[in-house]
Inverse folding.
């Protein structure tokens, strides 16, 4: 591993010396943003509003724009969050990693203690006009914390105890989310944690070990413990997790939702059925058509062209995100960016995958498209964080 | 790479962390890992693209079809059932628009919410949660597939309707559907004959589901009487409509009619409703009359049949006790109890029975014309041969002991011929004929029974609306078959023998002989029309639904009963019997002359007082009581109507049945009702 060896003093000296790229370095923060990512995310926000306008048109009778106008408010809040994230130097997160960890656990625990129950889950804290969903923000905080933890121990990544420590500290938030129960978010947390470990340079053998342990855990949760009389998952959760593997054998009708979702997606065809003819969405055949299954509703209304456009925008974000990993200022920023990007990819894959029968049904949102403030604000904050890393990164490669 | 790292130009509010080795460099290992993440992301998106391509581009047609089917439900449009008309086109049974409360078991809430919902529903419908659950259980046990709704209640009030509609969210799985209910213009008239309509049960449905009528799993079907016998015409063809529904099955738009329902056809009966009313009133009158006599105190039911003797068309058919058929529409527990519950039915003397068709009685003296005709045809006696009409008649039984049979009139003792024997209804005259039949050589068989069979006794008449009983004409073979070691272990060897008493009692219509009022009516029609056996019928044709109100109905199908069949009687012998029955209503010594001698139309008829072992409702033991009968026709020479009256436990034929028959005949001939009472006679 190539390491730059130097002292803080030389660094300070270098800082005072005018640089050949001084122009760029001296340019204001906004000028050093990733304009491709900025345009892409603006397009995504617009695209998401367009999608939400369509899929919520018939939800509130007499007020077709009810959800759209609410979502616009969230966009404004999200914009503020994004700008704040850009302004804040990521270094600050690293410094306050302990506080952040405590804050994250506190928020997640608060949900369990004082949250609002809806659809069998306790995921929300009611904050006057909207429901605050801490697990959406916990995702960011977990990535920041784990990245900080690993960035401090980059030289010791070869030792097994480093990843083990990261996993051990990552388990409590995962469990808290899992207990809500929010299986989907717990999976996203684990994916982001894994991605952080992966780009930090975890040894392949350790990675294999951890994977094996995870597989064993899954088997235990799904099969061993219930067989021993200690069920961990709710019946509906297990049915959803295993149901997509064999859709035809469906005693509890757990795949009814997936069937309806596939019908909605398929019925969309190439160009979509439009807002008014989307019967799967409008007549409520599609479950949770504004949140978990928003993608299916969107696919029914806008067809393959619509979803292809959406996936391409997502892919653009992923591409820019990975680019930002490579130009990050330091290890911490790089790990943060990688964790964010992989969590993003994972969340999209699981969400879209579940609507088309490729992944188990879990209650996670689709960034920018699902109706809801927390998801949108967290997504925009995430973009802001990427921009922040970009703006403070090595511009030359831009 | 020297320029990497924190820069002075960037505003920082924190000093750099000394633990971090600065500036940071992207190592090849790191680059590889990032590339791997990128590849994983690309693969993930690739998979999604391919899957979406296969769903939305390759299989779009299939899924669009499924989405269409998802939301379109084909629902039946109920066809109104056809009306039942009387012979003049007056509607007896029509439809009234109403509604029905249905429960879709699959859409009901679960657990405690279900109990709450049933509790509320029970309160609104005026019933209990337990009752609703019982109805659903019964449906589960014997009902059609679970996807069909369960009928909870029919004909709810507009307040109930409004309440349930306004609080629809509290009543998941409850549907109120408009429907047609049977409406009975004539209240309780003709109840047992009209029959009723009820839910088709699973067995019936499986049997009929392929019939062209197009029954639905939760359809209504005629279950008795005319409603059952002519269901295929009355039912109509249900139409279909398509309705778009949301995922909970609630309609999102008005149903679009696809196939128009075809209302059921009208069925025109041979019944004249005015004569029917007169007959039911006459029956009640006869029963009341019986109560005033010494041995008619227990009169509690009966039947009256009026028939066209030339065609077999039934003009009136009364059966008492009766009920109001609308209890079958609303199906309240109290209303149906006397019809369905064994104990309540017994106390109410079985109002559901159609006594005119389905109950048998000993015919008593109304049987004497059968004996007379058989005796004349068989040359057992000649019309002018005098026989002694004595107070009693004694024969030797098979064991040599004497057995005495008495005449109903103990004060008579003179030789009489056949017509007088019928006029007086002399038992001893007919005992002698019975004894002669008994003594016929074995190779002649049992001609009395043979003639009885030719007259239609002991078998079904073939009337188009059931159910009917076949009765019994006892024969040697019947005794052999009925009394065996198994059925009668203590006495079978004696009981299986045909004894003189069997023939003698049969001659006056007593002992084992059992006939329905319909069989008797048919026989008297044969006497009236010159010896032809008619096939009785109740429905004359099927017409277009709106025919009732029109002067010239659109007849779709008319039912021609089989032509009356001559039974091969010698007309002279028939005339002997006919004149005897004419004398019976006109001669001062005739058994019903007090009722009919002054009747404005010439009536001929015969009384009957038949002993029957009965158990009165609520009684523990049985006793022998007289059944009051009268059968006859008018006008004597050109018969237009034949009437038979049976009053159960009504005493003498002349005191109850004959005056009741006079009422019906008076109505038919549009004459004033005779006020003369009956008299004690056989």
């Amino acid at each position: 591993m190539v390491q730059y060896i130097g002292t803080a003093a030389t660094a300070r000296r270098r800082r005072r010396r005018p640089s050949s790229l001084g122009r760029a370095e001296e340019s204001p923060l906004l000028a050093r943003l990733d304009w491709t990512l900025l345009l892409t995310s603006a397009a995504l926000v617009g695209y998401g509003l367009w999608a939400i306008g369509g899929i919520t048109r018939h939800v509130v009778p007499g007020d077709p724009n009810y959800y759209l106008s609410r979502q616009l408010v969230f966009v404004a809040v999200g914009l503020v969050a994004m700008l704040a994230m850009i302004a804040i130097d990521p270094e600050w997160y690293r410094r306050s990693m302990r506080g952040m960890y405590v804050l994250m656990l506190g928020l997640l625990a608060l949900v369990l203690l004082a949250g609002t129950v809806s659809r069998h889950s306790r995921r929300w804290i009611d904050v006057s006009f909207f429901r605050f969903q801490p697990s959406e923000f916990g995702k960011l905080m977990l990535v920041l914390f784990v990245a900080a933890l690993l960035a401090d121990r980059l030289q010791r990544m070869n030792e097994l105890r480093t990843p083990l420590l990261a996993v051990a500290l990552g388990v409590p938030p995962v469990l808290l989310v899992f207990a809500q129960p929010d299986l989907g978010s717990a999976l996203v947390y684990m994916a982001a944690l894994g991605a952080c470990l992966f780009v930090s340079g975890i040894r392949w053998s350790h990675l294999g070990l951890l994977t094996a342990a995870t597989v064993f855990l899954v088997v235990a949760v799904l099969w061993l413990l219930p067989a021993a009389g200690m069920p961990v998952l709710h019946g509906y959760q297990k049915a959803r997790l295993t149901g997509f593997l064999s859709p035809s054998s469906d005693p509890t009708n757990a795949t009814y939702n997936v069937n309806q979702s596939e019908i909605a997606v398929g019925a969309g065809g190439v160009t979509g059925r439009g807002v008014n003819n989307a019967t799967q969405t409008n007549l409520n055949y599609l479950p949770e058509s504004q949140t978990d299954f928003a993608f299916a509703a969107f696919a029914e209304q806008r067809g393959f062209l619509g979803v292809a456009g959406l996936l391409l925008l997502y892919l653009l974000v992923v591409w820019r995100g990975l680019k930002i990993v490579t130009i990050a200022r330091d290890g911490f920023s790089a790990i943060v960016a990688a964790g964010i990007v992989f969590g993003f990819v994972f969340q999209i894959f699981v969400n879209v995958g579940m609507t088309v029968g490729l992944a188990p049904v879990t209650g996670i949102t689709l960034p920018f498209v699902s109706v809801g403030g927390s998801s949108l604000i967290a997504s925009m904050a995430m973009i802001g964080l990427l921009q922040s890393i970009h703006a403070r990164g090595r511009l030359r490669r831009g | 790479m020297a320029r990497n790292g924190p820069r002075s130009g960037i505003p920082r509010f924190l000093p750099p962390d000394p633990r971090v080795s600065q500036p940071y460099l992207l190592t090849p290992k790191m680059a590889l890992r990032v590339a791997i993440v990128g590849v994983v992301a690309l693969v993930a998106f690739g998979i999604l693209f391919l899957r979406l391509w296969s769903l939305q581009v390759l299989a779009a047609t299939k899924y669009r079809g499924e989405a269409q089917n998802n939301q379109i439900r084909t629902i039946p449009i109920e066809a109104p059932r056809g009306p039942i008309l009387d012979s003049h086109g007056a509607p007896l049974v029509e439809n009234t628009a109403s509604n029905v409360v249905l429960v879709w078991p699959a859409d009901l809430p679960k657990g405690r919410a279900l109990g709450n919902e049933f509790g509320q529903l029970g309160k609104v419908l005026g019933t209990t949660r337990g009752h609703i659950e019982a109805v659903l259980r019964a449906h589960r046990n014997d009902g059609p597939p679970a996807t069909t709704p369960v009928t909870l209640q029919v004909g709810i009030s507009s307040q109930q309707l409004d309440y349930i509609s306004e609080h629809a969210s509290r009543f998941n799985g409850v549907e109120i559907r408009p429907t047609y209910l049977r409406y009975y213009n004539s209240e309780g008239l003709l109840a047992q004959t009209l029959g009723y309509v009820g839910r088709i049960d699973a067995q019936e449905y499986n049997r009929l589901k392929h019939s062209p009528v197009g029954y639905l799993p939760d359809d209504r079907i005629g279950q008795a009487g005319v409603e059952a016998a002519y269901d295929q015409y009355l039912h109509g063809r249900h139409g279909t409509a398509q309705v778009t529904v949301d995922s909970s099955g609630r309609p999102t738009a008005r149903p679009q009619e696809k196939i128009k329902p075809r209302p059921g056809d009208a069925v025109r009966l041979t019944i004249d409703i005015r004569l029917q009313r007169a007959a039911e009133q006459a029956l009640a009158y006869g029963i009341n009359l019986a109560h005033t006599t010494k041995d008619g105190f227990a009169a509690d039911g009966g039947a009256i049949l009026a028939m066209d003797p030339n065609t077999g068309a039934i003009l009136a058919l009364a059966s008492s006790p009766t009920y109001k058929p609308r209890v079958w529409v609303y199906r309240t527990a109290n209303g149906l109890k006397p019809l369905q519950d064994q104990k309540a039915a017994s106390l109410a003397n079985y109002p559901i029975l159609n006594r005119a068709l389905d109950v048998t009685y000993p015919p008593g003296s109304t049987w004497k014309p059968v004996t007379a005709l058989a005796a004349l045809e068989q040359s057992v006696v000649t019309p002018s041969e005098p026989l002694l009409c004595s107070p009693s008649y004694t024969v030797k039984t098979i064991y040599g002991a004497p057995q005495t049979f008495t005449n109903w009139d103990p004060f008579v003792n003179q030789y009489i011929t056949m017509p007088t024997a019928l006029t007086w209804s002399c038992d001893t005259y007919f005992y002698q004929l019975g004894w002669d039949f008994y003594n016929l050589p074995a190779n002649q068989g049992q001609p009395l029974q043979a003639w009885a069979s030719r007259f239609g006794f002991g078998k079904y008449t073939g009337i188009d609306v059931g159910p009917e009983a076949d009765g019994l004409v006892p024969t040697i073979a019947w005794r052999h078959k009925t009394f065996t070691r198994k059925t009668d272990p203590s006495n079978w060897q004696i009981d299986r023998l045909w004894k003189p008493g069997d023939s003698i009692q049969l001659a006056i219509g007593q002992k084992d002989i059992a006939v329905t009022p319909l069989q008797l009516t048919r026989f008297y029609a044969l006497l009236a029309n010159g010896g032809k056996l008619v096939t009785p019928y109740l429905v004359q044709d099927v017409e277009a639904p709106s025919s009732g109100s029109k002067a010239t109905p659109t007849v779709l199908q008319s039912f021609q009963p089989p032509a009356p069949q001559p039974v091969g009687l010698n007309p002279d012998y028939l005339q002997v019997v006919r004149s005897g029955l004419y004398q019976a209503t006109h001669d001062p010594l005739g058994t019903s002359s007090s009722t009919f001698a002054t009747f404005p139309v010439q009536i001929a008829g015969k009384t009957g007082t038949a002993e029957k072992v009965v158990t009165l409702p609520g009684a523990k033991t049985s006793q022998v009581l007289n059944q009051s009968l009268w059968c006859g026709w008018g006008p004597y020479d050109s018969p237009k109507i034949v009437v038979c009256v049976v009053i159960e436990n009504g005493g003498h034929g002349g005191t109850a049945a004959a005056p009741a028959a006079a009422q019906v005949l008076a109505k038919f001939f549009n004459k004033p009702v005779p006020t003369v009472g009956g008299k004690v006679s056989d």
User: Anything to note?
Assistant: The two ends of chain A are 24 Å apart (CA to CA). Chain A has one domain: 33-391. Chain A touches chain B through 84 residues (CB under 8 Å).
